[in-house]
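ARCHIVE RECORD
Type: protein–small molecule complex
Small molecule: adenosine-5'-triphosphate
Source of inputs: curated submission
Record status: active
Notes field left blank by submitter.
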Amino acid sequence: MNIYNNFIINIIKKELKKNKNKKICTRFPPEPNGYLHIGHAKSIYLNFNIAKKFNGKCNLRFDDTNPVNETKNFINSIKKDIKWLGFKWNGSIKYSSNYFDLLYKYAIFLIKKNFAYVDELSSKQIKKYKGTLNTPGINSPYRNRTIEENIKLFNNMKNGKYIEGKLCLRAKIDMKSPRIIMRDPVLYRIKYFPHHQTGNKWCIYPTYDFSHCISDYIEGITHSLCTLEFQDNRELYNWILNKIFTKKYPKQYEFSRLNIQFTVLSKRKLKKLVEKKIVSGWDDPRMPTISGLKKRGYTSKSIKNFCKKIGITKQNNLIEFSLLESCIREELNISAPRIMAVINPLKIIFINLPKNYKEKILMKNHPFKSKMGTRKVYFNKEIYIDNSDFLENATKKYKRLVLGKEVRLRYSYVIKAEKIKKDKNGIINVVYCSCDLKTLNKKPNNRKVKGIIHWVSAIKNLPAKFYLYENLFLDKNPNNSDDFLKKINKNSLSIKHGFIEKINIKNKLKKYFQFEREGYFYLDNKINSKKLRFNRIVKLKNSYINKK
Ligand code: ATP
Ligand code: MG
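STRUCTURE (tokenized, with ligand):
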């Protein structure tokens, strides 16, 4: 890893100066209740790279204490995405549920030390008794049971003697603490729901706050990195470990969450988009999920590069979508071969070329990387250009093909629009042109031709579908509102049928292309599908500049 630096790395460097033999161990702890999104990539990049930088380890631990929303499918997708990003976790995969037996013992330990009690208030009452930032909480009437009674009730909870929500285990801390999280937080709750790892063994499950710090301790995590909203939980994290363990325990550090313009980064909200069928699934190319970005055509390198650029700080901010786009553009500008594709075809017929006119024009595959070689592109009596590249009447500013005027075809001839044919509805469907055969990559005599447009032979080509994506939301920050579904961009996908040059598409390496003047595209084909499908990853230029 090169120039990657942040405040957490600086803290570790200082610690290592004092204690040279310290082994660094981090963890990435996803809850398997959805697919990973690019916000998770930020956390993955941080945790795995810190371990790498300091010769340490990074565990993958599924934080699976809430079986109701968790599935094996989510677990598999998370594993796949981390591997695809190019990271390797330390040893076997861990689960918080691996420690359910131990966690139960530690809960009993806390009860025995009079640091935990079984409460009978309902969740509504608990909330009410908690107080607010300005008013202290009130002790539960069940707070002072005897230790024996607490142990008996907790065991009964475990043995399925009560209905859900009837009882819970709470830490006995301080109902008047200025931090609400310290007002006797819940440690265990009853849930009759089979768990994807432990089946029907448990009907009580630990809370995040109780299981996370202990899981970190058990695994020997040294730096437990999480996002800013857990800042207040740090006190509880330390309180629990301090009450149970005597050895030095892990430390929690917080950094800011990633937010990106025009999208949401919350599994709950992304799940809504899937359930409401606003997108085709978690891996829809408009989704900010790792699998969605992958299907769109983002490479893992470009995502990692993005994570490096945004860095790690304690300031919450909203990152411009164009930063993510610039990362893939930068990469593909160097690596993607150029070809021509016509997305909205308009037929051109050359009136001065014979019916069977055939030619193959030599073109470079990349403007400045000669190593990428050349190819021959078919040129015939009939070609396609893009609909938007022709106007019957136009102002001087319009630098493309206009009736009676000339334009250059990319890497080939100068042509002139002579007449047009319209269909029944008055829409132009053929433009008859003359082609100046003396102008192949040469300037014409006595006249200037400014515009250059791309084209594809209408005789020898490959038909293709183009999936053109726009941002999913119309609002810069849809995260802000509860009504985020109202901010959906209804035109975020359009599918077009057009043509690309006849190239050898079977070459597996050829997945990423720059379509001249159109953008970077990814070949997203199912093996048996007849028509090629290309997803537009990104346009050639930043398109977000003028949006509100
Ligand atoms: P979500 O709100 O999307 O469900 P989460 O924090 O509940 O997010 P987890 O699966 O618990 O999701 O997250 C695993 C790790 O990824 C945590 O350490 C969390 O802090 C981190 N993480 C999640 N979202 C972001 C984000 N937007 N930016 C940076 N890190 C994130
Ligand atoms: Mg979570």
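CURATOR ANNOTATION: The chain has a mean pLDDT of 94.
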